């Protein structure tokens, strides 16, 4: 029914009720005049009207609270109209409630049927409020005994307490064993969707992890298998004397260069595979003064005196981690700085303390620089700004991937700042937990 039509009905009903009132009072007054008691008759008529109105009100109230709502009686009075309006309001509300319930059921059914485990957690008490069907095989949650159970207790082997404590900043757990079946691998995400309620989503990544492992094994095996034939070829090429066949000299030199490149590529792939297979690294004392001295020597050897190389060590501390892997990371940065800086350029290696107690090792060059659009992808394997420049300079495209991986294993961060035509700065930021007090007696005669 339209709003205008409704207003018209109400107005008609109201006018009709007023007319009825007038009629009753007029009839009362007429009878009163006939019997010569107008005021008495008018009072009786008015009381009659009031009693009738109360009776109608009672009827409306009774119908409102009745379990089975009877249809409003067909009449044109204001009370009947009110009754009809109330009934319409009530049935509209019921229909809306039914629609909402159907929607809620549909959402629940969708969440219950998701292949990922979904658990609703009450944040303050860290209790399980609801979970879907997939939470049983993936997380071992049982209905109904685990409703209201402590999340930390039911997902026992997982480090839930510290993870939940991190709250909104909790990093997803990318690969953890399932508490229900350790052979299954899960990736866990915490989604705080309101102040009190959090959603824990667990996805089965067993197949994905197996494929990832196969990929890693494949690369590692191929690299390993290539190593021996390459060493043999490289060895024989070294033995060939270009003086004996001078016309072959350019070919021999090119073959040697390419076999050297292939060997380096295989070595880098093996280094990456080795790093990927590790979760932790040896925790040694990494003496930084000899490390910086080695980096300087390597830079000078690569540069052949064509660059100005400087080393500054203002930190006066050492690091904590793997000397071999850190050397490989830093050395890749230094080698890049030399290779991507034209002759006469400048290369500065700096080791300094940072605000907050950490340390930073930065390698700055005045070379070609890297366009900003390439910066986000620069540490990907085989990603190069210029393939020809990388190849000409003997690059494998894996140096920065190795550096990033090593730093990641040390909880450190690699930052790159660069300006085309002005140079680049690669900085490795280490947290205070990686800082190791330097003891001068460890290396008395090394000056960087
Ligand atoms: P590559 O063996 O090709 O040098 P890297 O992983 O070490 O591989 O570096 C990836 C790419 O990043 C390089 O190909 C080069 O384009 C760019 N790059 C790295 N370091 C520098 C630098 N210091 N100056 C300019 N470009 C750089």
List keywords for this structure.
448 residues, alpha+beta, Beta-Lactamase, Helix Hairpins, 5-stranded mixed sheet, 12 helices, 13 strands, binds adenosine-5'-diphosphate
Number of helices: 12
Form type? elongated
Strand order of the largest sheet: 2-1-5-4-3
- The CATH topology of the largest domain corresponds to Heat Shock Protein 90
Which radius of gyration do the C-alpha atoms yield? 42 Å
Average per-residue pLDDT, rounded, comes to 89
| CATH architecture annotation name of the largest domain | 2-Layer Sandwich
- CATH homologous superfamily identity of the largest domain: Histidine kinase-like ATPase, C-terminal domain
The total count of strands amounts to: 13
- When the domains are counted, the total is 4
Estimate percent helicity.
40-55%
Q: What can be said about the biggest beta sheet? A: 5 strands, antiparallel
Portion of residues in beta strands equals 15-25%
Report on the structure:
It is a single chain. The protein has 448 residues and is α+β, with helices and mostly antiparallel strands. It has 12 helices and 13 strands. It has a 5-stranded antiparallel sheet with strand order 2-1-5-4-3. Helix 2 (38-65) runs parallel beside helix 3 (78-113), helix 7 (206-239) packs antiparallel against helix 8 (249-276) and helix 9 (288-303) runs parallel beside helix 10 (323-339). The chain starts with a helix and ends in an 11-residue tail after the last strand. The model has no long low-confidence stretch (mean pLDDT 89). Residues 332, 336-337, 340, 365, 367-370, 378, 383-386, 390, 395-401, 424 line the site of adenosine-5'-diphosphate (ADP).
